Amino acid sequence: MKKTFLFLALLLLPFVGISQKKSKSETPKVNEVIVVFKTHFDIGYTDWSDNVRYNYANSMVTSALKTIDESKHLPKDQQFKWTVSGWPMKEMLLKSKPEVKTKIEKAIKDGNLFVHALPFSMETEAADLEPLVQSLGYASKIHRDLGLPLAIDAKMSDVPSHSWIVPTMLNNAGVKFLHIGCNPASMSPKVPLLFWWEGPDKSKLMTFYFGEYYGTSPAPPKDWTHKTWLAIIQTNDNSGAQTYEEYRKAVAEIEKLNPGAKVRVGSLADFYNTISKENPKLETIKGDMPDTWIHGYMSMPREMKASRALSKSTLNLEAFSTLSSFWGQKEEEPIQKMVNESLEGIHLFDEHTFGLAMSHGHSGYWAYGNEFEKLRAKGYYDIIEYSWKEKGNHVTASEKLILPAFSRELKRLATSVNVEGERIVVYNPLPWERNDMVTLQTGTAFKKSLKSVATGEIIPIIKNKNILQFQANKIPAMGYVTFVSTDEEAPAAKSSLSFDTDKGIMENAFFKITFDKQNGTIKSLIDKKSNKEMVNANSEYKFGQYINERFAKTQTDKYAKDYIKAGWNWAYQELGRINLDDTPYKKSSGKNAEIEFSKDGLSVSATMKFKGDTDLNHNYSMVFTLYENKPAVEVIWSISGKPAEAWPEGGWISFPFNIDNAQFKLGRLGGVIDPVKDIVKNSNLDYGFINTGVGVLDKNNQGFGVTSADVPGVSLDRPGLWKYSTDFVPQKGNVFFNLYNNQWSTNFTEWVEGSWTAKFYVWSIDNYTDGSSIVVPAEEIRNPLMVSYAGGTAGKIAASAKGISVSEKGVLVTFFGKNRDGEGDLIRLWEQNGKDTVCTVTLPQGSIYKTAQFCDLRGEEKGETLSISNNAIQVKFRANQPVSLILK
Fold first, then answer.
1. Cα(113)–Cα(530) distance, rounded to whole angstroms?
2. Which of 213, 410, 559, 568 could form a disulfide with 788 if both were Cys (CB 3.0 to 4.6 A apart)?
3. Are strands 82-84 and 113-115 parallel, antiparallel or unpaired?
4. CB of 283 within 8 A of CB of 672?
5. Shortest CA distance to 539 belongs to which of 522, 514, 527?
6. Angle at 16 (CA atoms; ends 14, 20), nearest 5 degrees
7. H-helix or E-strand spanning residue 652
């Protein structure tokens, strides 16, 4: 995902950046130049990530300290100062020798080591709201532990573009300045050099975007109108700090190129504080910048699916544990410690490097077909494959912490409720009341029905051997309900579920589906309420169709030519695909599926099994399901034993909606966007990640919604792999979810294999709003009801309890637990409906909170303190704004 980059040539420069030798007449006159020294951090790429971590805590930090010591005889503003991101500095402090740690801490206190606010360079689009906020904690903990103010500056390098959440998050965390240095080969978003980046909540962040390299040039460009310049001298990937000779030579060069200017060595914050005094007139950029590298995450589809689930369940576990203490449970496990460790794994998966690159020549070379299989069999790819495994292990380690712990905590709750005998407890992790179907696997022989202890409702159950399913209604916000086994008969209800095998039809109260038996896809999908047809029968793509693309050299070369802006000789090795022959492009889908219908009291399904043939060398299946009580169609794709394939390929599920001149709404990280209006030019128009869902609308604001909890990668109108467009406007009502790809030829996983599944949901939209049409349905899919069983003696806590509720569905509780940054507990709320609102927040039963102090995203107290009355508070939100409160 980056560059091999002519390492040696760049390291010979006294600075890294663009060496622009300017004449005095070409160089704008500036009064002051702030020089910042930094190294680009990759957790991997140049070596196995464990080796990188070792080097940072040993040779790299001691080398930096040596340069600092050698510069101590100079005036303070000329001494060497090294800027480091939060997570590698945490590693250096944690894993260096005691005497080195002491020197590091002194250098930070003395102002010779700066720790900026971010943990490292991330592909923010792959992340989620609360894990991103928590990632700021590495740097803030270091500053608090050392008694220093929190950093007001932040830096990202390499990744060309970032999600719109960045200005919202950093501004609301008290960060004032962000520098982004782009990979020199990758196209950059069209933004000014220095600008205000306005987030979806209208937060503004001063942002410096340098499109030519990680740092900046030693002197400003001709059109620079300010009196202060920022010269970031950044060494290449994991290569360490400058030597004394290199840093002094760089400062001398900058002085020469900026005659008459005061040149001082400092921090990114020094630049912000200095240029702010000029009261600069900067353009405001309002827009999202979808990442042109983000498709690489779908080279690890299983890990991406798990990471998305963990981004919710990790924080849900802490909230559940905190709530349990109010319900009468005593903490038996170190939940906060587990959550912190899991979050670190999530952060490291969101960090922008995956592993080694083929172009380095350290492990195999690009080969295809029989040659690829031979090289792999001989072990020539073992080194590079292990580097990818290191990346995936971050997710696996988090799963090993969170999934068993959450299971134990739910079991403990079920055991502790004051209900005798067999009982099932259902917990709702969202802050509004919900109904949904739940599934429990148990060998226990239940009676005829279940009874809700909270409402007295008698509920039918569906039993299939050890699988038990039922409809759980009125589960309170972030609370739970106990259900008991009973011989009482559930009220008879007429089922709306049916199927006709001969006609290939199935339906419920909401939809009628007609299947295309030859292709194993949906031929017609009627929304019964509006009598609208969802499926565009004239599309070249089928509805619910699996598509495998194998790309041609002409396509990969065109993409490289469209996308690479500099350094073709090395960049093509990284961003194109070398050693391909002239095999033409091929698009394949399964045909002649074996179709089997099934029905029970809660759902009706059609299962399609496709066997690999000459066009498609793997087996897969599709399961289409309608539920009795759910106004959505469920689509499950499952692949079995996909072989490894080094040839450039991708897999999709297509949904061609029956809407002319479609308008799209994309639920992205931090807010819902219109992809035609809200994307900064030269960002990724062809492919992007969603965080909630997609709306496909007609001119009357009606249409359809679609999402997946497992697959965030989406293209509109047509599949978007191996494409880089600067003026593409989607018009056809087609939505494509990317199941997997191996497009990124640098250091993402280069062949995808194995077995896994992905779920999708489709629903109708009557009158579009961000909250009701996209955010709420998608959040309920990403945060399913949770269930546990217990038997035996009754416990002592209530059979049902409420948790935290919000009066506005779509206002999320992203964090509830111990305040990491001080005393008390902390609750974080995040408005995602896209509207200004006043929301009543009701706190959990049993809580004794008296006050709620507003604070920023790093726990710094800010604003008024609210008195809590009747266990509730009213909070004003701007659209898409996070609000944090310290509860005492």
1. 63
2. 410
3. parallel
4. no
5. 522
6. 85
7. strand 649-656
Instruction: Measure the CA dihedral 728/732/738/744, to 10°.
Output: -20
CATH number (2.60.120, 2.60.40, 2.40.50, 2.30.30) of 423-490+785-790 reads 2.60.40
Rounded to whole angstroms, the Cα distance separating 632 from 622 reads 16
Output the six-digit token pair for 765: 């939209």
The predicted structure's pLDDT at residue 725? 96
b/e per residue 750-765 (b: at least 16 CB within 10 A): bbbeeebbbbbbbbbb
Domain residue spans of the chain: 29-286, 298-416, 423-490+785-790, 517-782, 804-887
Q: What angle do CA 447, 452, 458 make, to 5 degrees?
A: 60
Give the tokens for residue 860.
């710094």
Distance separating alpha carbons of residues 407 and 411, to the nearest angstrom: 6
Distances (CA, A) of 510 to 525, 623, 774: 10, 18, 18
pLDDT in tens, 822-834: 999 999 999 999 9
Rounded to whole angstroms, the Cα distance separating 681 from 86 reads 31
Buried b (16+ CB within 10 A) or exposed e, 463-474: eeeeebbbbbbe
Give me 411's structure tokens.
């079991």
Euclidean distance between CA atoms 497 and 593, whole angstroms: 23
Q: What is the DSSP string of 284-319?
A: EEE-B---TTGGGGGGSHHHHHHHHHHHHHHHHHHH
pTM higher than the cut 0.90: yes
DSSP state of 564: B
DSSP E strand boundaries for 218-321 = 228-235, 262-265, 284-286
Using CB atoms within 10 A of its CB, is residue 54 exposed (0-12), middle (13-18) or buried (19+)?
Answer: middle
Please give the CATH number for the structural domain made up of 517-782.
2.70.98.30
Cβ(743)–Cβ(648) below 8 Å: yes
Query: Distance between CA atoms of 94 and 72, rounded to whole angstroms?
Result: 25
Q: Which stretches within 86-178 are classed as H helix?
A: 86-95, 98-110, 129-135, 137-145, 165-172
Residue 813 near residue 849, CB atoms below 8 Å: no
| Distance, CA of 213 to CA of 722 (rounded, Å) | 23
Helix (H, G, I), strand (E, B) or coil at 46: coil
Neighbours of 462 (CB within 10 A): 15
Backbone CA torsion sign across 266, 270, 274, 279: positive
For residue 117 the two structure tokens come to 């606010």
Residues counted in the chain: 888
Sequence letter at residue 138: Y
Q: Is 31 exposed, middle or buried (0-12, 13-18, 19+ CB in 10 A)?
A: middle
Q: Which residues of the chain have pLDDT under 70?
A: 1-27, 612-614
For residue 709, give Cα distances in angstroms to 401, 479, 684, 803. Answer: 21, 22, 22, 24
Q: 810 and 839 in contact (C-beta within 8 Å)?
A: no
What token pair was written down for 164? 């719109």
Give the sign of the dihedral formed by CA 568, CA 570, CA 575, CA 576.
positive
Residue 674: both structure tokens together: 């219109």
423-490+785-790 and 804-887 share one fold = yes
How many Å apart are CA 802 and CA 814, to the nearest integer? 17
Question: Terminal CA-to-CA distance of the chain, rounded, Å?
Answer: 46
Q: How far apart are the C-alpha atoms of 176 and 205, rounded to whole Å? A: 6
The CATH number of 804-887 is 2.60.40.1180
pLDDT score at 383? 96
Closest CA to 168 of 884, 782, 779, 886: 884
Residue 8: per-residue pLDDT = 31
Query: Topology of domain 29-286, per CATH?
Result: 7-stranded beta/alpha barrel (3.20.110)
Establish how many alpha carbons lie within 13 A of residue 854's alpha carbon, considering only the half-sphere containing its beta carbon: 14
CA distances from 430 to 68, 325, 409, 806, 877 (A): 50, 18, 17, 9, 19
Q: Which amino acid is at 45?
A: Y
